[in-house]
Structures are given as C-alpha cells and as structure tokens.
C-alpha cells in the first residue's frame, strides 16, 4: 500500500534518508536544520496543502538550544498537533519524543515528552517514545549512537528506524481520526 508520508521537524529529521528507508511510500521530507517548534508552526500551511496520508513529527530539541522552557515547547507542540488534526481529520499523525541529547537537558526533555505523551491521544495522534532506544539511563544520548551529544550517526538512525517502522505499521492499522478535542488554555 503506497501512501504519502510527510516528515516534519528539525535537522535530526531532515538528515533522515526516509525516501530510501520507506521506498514503498511517497515520502516528503519537509524538515529543516535549525527548525524549532515556531518554524514548524510557520510551515504548517505547507503541510496542510500537501494533504499527506500520514505525518511524522520530530521537533523540540532546537527550542532547548534557544533556552525555551518545557512549557513553551509543549504548548507549541500542542498547537501543531491540534492545527494538523483540525485541518486534516483523515490524516494519520505520529509525534515522536524529543530525542535525548546531553544530560543537562534530560529533565526538561523528560517533562516535554511526558506532557506530549499525555496530550497526543486527545488529538488522536500516535506518540512514539524513542528514549528507550537512544538514551542512557541518565538521559544522555547514547554516545554509540551519536556524533556529538545531539546529532545521530548511522547507528543512531538505525536504532530510530527500528522503532519507527513498527510504529508506522501500528499507525496504519488504526483508522484515521475525524475529530479533535479543543485546546483548553488556562
């Protein structure tokens, strides 16, 4: 079954060879190096115009480089998910955990991931937790999987892909959603 599959996010996503790894799908890599959640929000109309069958999102780590708070990142990810769900009710959507990096960011990333994991089901979005495959117990990116404490090497992408492939299979087994639950701002 060939479907259109859009990847959205930051440089970690942009560097993925998704069209090579998913040759059975019509892949669109809309991610870009340096993208923060703000840039993804700015690109959202482009994704909506594409009307892909499925969207895979990976974003948030660059926000931390700009010293944005976990609340800021979570609110933007919620906005991304809600906007996509409202505009594309038949599209299957997966949001991935913010990937581990150097341990100084571990607690903030854990907080972001916990909130996104809790929010995703309200928008009928599948959450994919990549931490078990990529992080050390202290929350740092496993050095065997990275070229520094942020970017992945081929082994890191292989570990990611080993989680993503079954995650996408599950995503396509479920019917697409037709409703979203509005964001409640306090």
TrEMBL record:
PANTHER family: SGNH HYDROLASE-TYPE ESTERASE DOMAIN-CONTAINING PROTEIN, THIOESTERASE 1/PROTEASE 1/LYSOPHOSPHOLIPASE L1. GO terms for molecular function: phosphatidylcholine lysophospholipase activity. It comes from Cryobacterium flavum. This is Lysophospholipase L1. Coiled coil: none annotated. InterPro entries: Ester_Hydrolysis_Enzymes, SGNH_hydro, SGNH_hydro_sf. It comes from the Bacteria. Gene3D superfamilies: SGNH hydrolase. SUPFAM superfamilies: SGNH hydrolase. Pfam families: Lipase_GDSL_2. Residues 21-159 form the SGNH hydrolase-type esterase domain. Transmembrane segments: none annotated.
């Amino acid at each position: 079954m060939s479907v259109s599959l859009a990847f959205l996010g930051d440089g970690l996503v942009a560097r993925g060879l998704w069209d090579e790894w998913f040759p059975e799908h019509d892949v669109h890599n809309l991610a870009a190096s340096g993208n923060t959640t703000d840039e993804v929000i700015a690109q959202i109309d482009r994704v909506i115009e594409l009307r892909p069958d499925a969207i895979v999102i990976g974003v948030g780590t660059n926000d931390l480089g700009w010293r944005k708070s976990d609340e800021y990142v979570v609110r933007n990810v919620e906005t991304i998910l809600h906007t996509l769900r409202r505009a594309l009710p038949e599209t299957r959507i997966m949001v991935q955990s913010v990937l581990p990096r150097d341990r100084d960011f571990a607690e903030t990333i854990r907080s972001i991931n916990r909130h996104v994991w809790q929010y995703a089901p309200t928008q009928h979005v599948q959450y994919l937790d990549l931490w078990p495959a990529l992080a050390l117990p202290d929350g740092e990116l496993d050095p065997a999987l990275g070229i520094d404490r942020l970017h992945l090497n081929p082994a890191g992408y292989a570990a990611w892909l080993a989680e993503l492939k079954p995650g996408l299979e599950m995503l396509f087994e479920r019917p697409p959603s037709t409703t979203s639950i509005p964001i409640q701002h306090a």
